[in-house]
Give the backbone structure.
Amino acid sequence: MSRRQTLWDHLRWDLLALIVIGALTLGYAMLQQPRIQPAELALTDGSKPPDRSEGDILLVLPMAPAAQATNFATMDCTFSWFNALWQHFGTFATAPMDHITPQLLAGHAVVILPSRVASEIPSNTREHLADFARQGGQLIVEAPRQIWEPITGLSTVGTIGRAESVTSAEGLGIDGPLRDHLLEVPLTGRILPTDELELRPSGPVILEVEGQPGLVVEPLGDGHVYSLLFDFACSLLAMNQGKPTREMEFGPPDAEPWLPTDQRVAYEALLSSHIPYATVLQRALFDRLPEARPMARLWPFPGHYSGAAMTIHTAHEDPRAAFGYADRARKQEASSTIFAAPDYFTSDHTALTETVNADVGLLWVLGQTRPPITEGVGVGAIEPRSRELSLARQHAKLESAFGGPSSISQVRTEANLWKTDWDTTFRNLAAAGLRIDSSFGPSDPAHFGYLFGSGMPFFPLDDRGRPLPVMEVPFAFDGASISSPRLRQLLEASRDGFHQPVVVSLAADAMKRHPSVGIMLGFRDFHQLARETEHWLTTIGDYTDFLTARRHSVITSQWSPEQSRLTISVNLMGARLSSAPKGAIPSVAIPDQYQGRAIERIEVDDDTIAVDLSTRSGFGDERLLELPPGRHVVSVFYEPPGEAPGDDPEDPR
Amino acid sequence: MAVPSRQSKYRVLPFRLTLWSTVVLFFALAGIQQNPMTLSGSWEESSGIELTRDVDADIVVVLDYQAIRQSGSTFDDTDFSAAWIDLIEQEVGPISVATPETLSQDKIDAARVLIVTHSISRDMPQTFLERIRQHALDGHTLVIERPEGQAREIFSSDGDAGLRSGQSITHAEGMGEPYDKQLEEMPLFVDYVGSTSARDDEMQTLLSIDGAPVIYAADFGDGHVITVDFDLGRQLVTLQQGRPNNDFSVPREDAISSGSPRTSDLIAGEEMLGAAVPYTDLLARFVVFGVLMRYAGIPTLWSYPNRADGAAVFVHEDGRLGDGGAWKLEYENQRGGSSTLLTTSDSGITTEGAERIEGRGGQIGLAWRPPSPPIARYEPVGIGRFQPLRKPVELAEQRARLGDTLPRGNIRTARSLHGYWAPHWSRAQEMLAAEGIRADVSYESPTHRGYSFGTGLPFRPLSEEGLPLNLRQYPVTVSATANEGPSVESLLKDSAAGHHQLITIATRPSIFADYPDIDNFEQWLETFDYVEEYNHRLLNLSEFAQFRYSRRTSLLRSRVDKRASLPQELRTSETAPGHTATLLRITARTDRRDMALLLPARIGDARYFDALEGRERVGAELVINRLDTEEISMSGFPMRRVPLERGFNNLEFYYR
């Protein structure tokens, strides 16, 4: 007996076909919107740079990295000294504290003991340092605790206070912008107590911080000991790299995981400042060193330039407008750097970069303000999932537009966004082999200038205080914050004394997101203004190459008080760059006067040269000597003591 | 094995069909939802208006709208007599417009110049003919256009040679160089009436086409009769509003756009493309300053505020930047001006942004997306979430959406995005006028700078019936994309020297977002220097329109006394012994402080001598203020210009 067939029996193949069609439709729909797997990012730790033995200045370093900082107060800021010396002097010596011997000290004029070193240094080494000072050396001790009293002459027993600002700079003994602006410099960290002391010239105090001695200089034998009673290096670090608002984190507790870099800025006053406060603070100390004996340094720009001017253009998507800006720079006989998103940069663009004479860097796409860059994951053409490209893959993809691995080492993050913690993003960049970052700067139209205390590049520190192999080049303007008056103010201030690199960032879509006449006028005028204010028109790649060559140069000197003669031995390294085809070689900056006595004559390699009065620094306290690359011996003769103006009552000057 | 019976197969078939039909229908609907069908947009027809103006003015224009309506249905047949209204308004200011029904004897008596257009002169009632004849005999000026029948016998040459196709103007009486030569180069698109004999031997030929007099004057009693024997209205309309095919369709054989028409397709001829001379205005000014002022000595109101030699208006067209579309305004403010932002309803402009723009003196108008495929925006049509159709967003909807965003709401200025236009000559402007738009900036040549539409001044377009539209068209002189034609500097320079034009400069602020061409930017900056150097006033479109409105609605009456006695203050030994002069007495009332008056440098044989402002009593003294006037050239005609005070001005100008 056969079973009576139901409707289901008749339609089962139809329904099966329907299920297959439904499954295919669903699969197709899933392929249209694949799930994105976030990228995994590698991390690199910081490390101590190789020691150098030559240089007038010796920076003493700790033996081992510090423990991971849990908050900024526990941060080891030793390598902030490294940045400050590199920025100001160009080249200097470093040595671990257990390598300090009288023989090693004999080759240097100045020895710097950062706070951590000063507190950990063995007593016998301390004695060597005291002897070094007594024999005419200059010793700088940061945060000297009570054990240093025999050397510094200062007792630091008592309650440690909080340093916020310099309250008196009368002891500098100078007038002008440096002294005026020093009172505005924001400080971070402690101020050690000490006895009440008089300001110079009646006493030893150079700077007062919070109404008490902050920088004190005392003679010791034939030398001098400088005591920094506040956290000099941490103050610089907070300005350079930002000041965390809580346990090494930035922003409020409920902040987004990525914040614009200008939210790391330590102080409100830095958000719109044409004064590089970190540089001002550095000079308050470093400019004192030639008072005891003249010292030369390597000028931070090639030749006679007062500063450097650079333009960068970020292209989050289509780079066409960035090429427009770069082409304008080319017509102004300058060049620029385009930070391109790898998914929009094609091999056609590589030819264009040569046409417009531009460098190319990577714009690291984070997927925060635009879609992330992804690649499909699946079999053949069926890719139901996609994976976000890691930083390293984005780097490789951009390089592939140039036909393979190239020398792209510069990077900028999407919309200047940065992880909210202290160092992860820097460590990501370092792990991806990127060596120059230019993400630190303003993102608000109202913000401009030296948000990070200086225009000078710096090596960021990880949370154990070790420098990372990435150079951060802060920018001063971005998009809508550009205006001709602001540019003029910044460039003129740089020419007249602060001597800064000034980076202007103009995104390809700036005239789309924040169109303004100020942007166009500012960009139109920038190169001309830079020329008028004697700034070197270059790129951040060229400028950092120049700084690297400067760091590899060597400068040492000997002072003969009897002959009033400063003998400078210098081995100058230069860099042949597209923005300096004849080579970018640092000049030698020599103090214009020593104790009120002017330079009488200069001999270079035993030839007397005429003193060129026109090549002076902005404040007029240094004279720039341009020399070809290689080894040179420069003898600078100052007027003998009796002949200085003012010394002789008969002298009409 | 069970074999399904044939009967059971048939029973299942409806279910199977239903199942698969449902599946097919589902996929069909899903497909149509993904790719909705597009409905084409419509260009709605709207009629013009029968414009009359019953004001106290020196000039009365008489039209017969019924005759105009009935004139024909093709471009060649349409009567464009209404173009006279715009001609007089543009060059003079206040004007009275009458129809046979509204023209009273009082109005005729008050008219110093009576213009009888072709719409009425071709079939004039006997009583009307007698009234205007008497008016002329009484010492007034009668202008009659292409009269027919008895009117021609009374006032004009015989017209026996009939209609002839005009090639070029060959003579313009009294027009100085180089403007006379420029007028002779004007392309002509009209016929003229040829005659075999003049009305009398003393007839003065003022304008000739191909050697034949087409504007001529004759004494008539104590007055004058001026005959215009060519279709002046058609010539003006063809140049300004464009030249369609005879069925009013927009010619597109040589169109720049291959698909949808653009306003540039209406440019009257190749020779008009990028013209450095505003031919329309040259002709209009010849009529006003070379004819009416010569015979009637009428004054006019100066066309620009603060005695500027012209004006420049920046209009910025944007569909992408939203609030940022007005980024140039900051600099324009610094240079003492402002501009008009014409933005699409979907550009992203916000109420706050609009407030900021208006706070800086900027004006906001609509960059309208016409239903032309390249730029139209569509909205879905359907039921609930099922939307299988889409249609272009209508003009009214676009205007309402943008209006909802703006603080002041009401949008009265528009521009068709990128100049896309209706396939019909006047349809787009009819639509705009019907939607309450009062100023349109769509006419432009995308390739050439210059006066491709014969003028830089706003004109009132006409409908296909020949009736005026309640709208003014501001032709763009310098398009954002133009690379050919006269330079901006030369346009401003020539304008200052005598053309006295409104230079409308269109830009697209978003081009700098795509490619920051600094050279282009610097050219824009230079424009401000030229505007300043050549004494042009930088305004936004609304400010200019307001000025022109005040000018039109001002009171301006004059009277000429050819045997006046010079006041004591003006008498010198040179005026002795008679101390007589021709007096032009003017009463003007304006509601602005920046108006000025333009007077003839001569009346008849008498030259300008001196001027006095109305007498006022100060204590016991009767004080008379002397007036300073300045010489100025108006398209080759020497004039005198004098500023006016706000309110009433009673002025006396003496000619000897």
